[in-house]
Design brief:
alpha/beta; Rossmann fold; 8 helices
Length: about 160
């Protein structure tokens, strides 16, 4: 079964304050049932009223961490997709606060793969962060420097274990 088959008909919430990002994700996820929100208030209402297979949350501009908490409370996996919060601190905070994935908007064209990783990990009760690391390690190495995980080795070794 291909990636597209796994995503077909999935209910997804996309939250971002940038209309071009919402439009891009609507186009990329055209086989899914996608709701969009461009504000915290609209996203909160949708999250509290509906069930989603996954929520894709921006961090800046829409109170992404507050939305992450709501999604987590409703057992909705959250994929943090950000352009401005690409810091080691935001990455760790997202993980610690219950995100299922953390991806840069620079990699938005791979969104279907990221969603697949989250859904497969949930279904098979596997550690999604292994797949995340395999897919995005080179991006983070370029962003933070190749030895970035050594600053908090215990945290990363625990997170990315087989």
């Amino acid at each position: 079964m291909g990636t597209k088959d796994l995503l077909k008909g999935k209910k997804i919430l996309v939250v971002d304050d940038e209309q071009d990002i919402l439009d891009t994700l609507l186009e990329l996820l055209d086989i899914c049932n996608v709701d969009t929100a461009d504000s915290f208030e609209k996203a909160k209402e949708l999250l509290e009223r509906n069930y989603y297979d996954i929520a894709i949350l921006d961090i800046m501009g829409v109170k992404g961490y507050d939305l992450l908490e709501i999604a987590k409370d409703r057992n909705i996996p959250a994929l943090m997709l950000t352009a401005h919060a690409l810091t080691e601190e935001d990455l760790k905070r997202s993980i610690k606060e219950g995100a299922s994935y953390f991806a840069p908007k620079d990699e938005i064209d791979k969104i279907h793969l990221f969603i697949q990783d989250v859904l497969e990990a949930k279904e098979k009760k596997k550690n999604v962060w292994l797949k995340w690391y395999e897919r995005l390690a080179s991006f983070w190495d370029r962003r933070f420097g190749e030895r970035w995980r050594e600053k908090d080795k215990e945290f990363w070794d625990t997170l990315i274990k087989y």
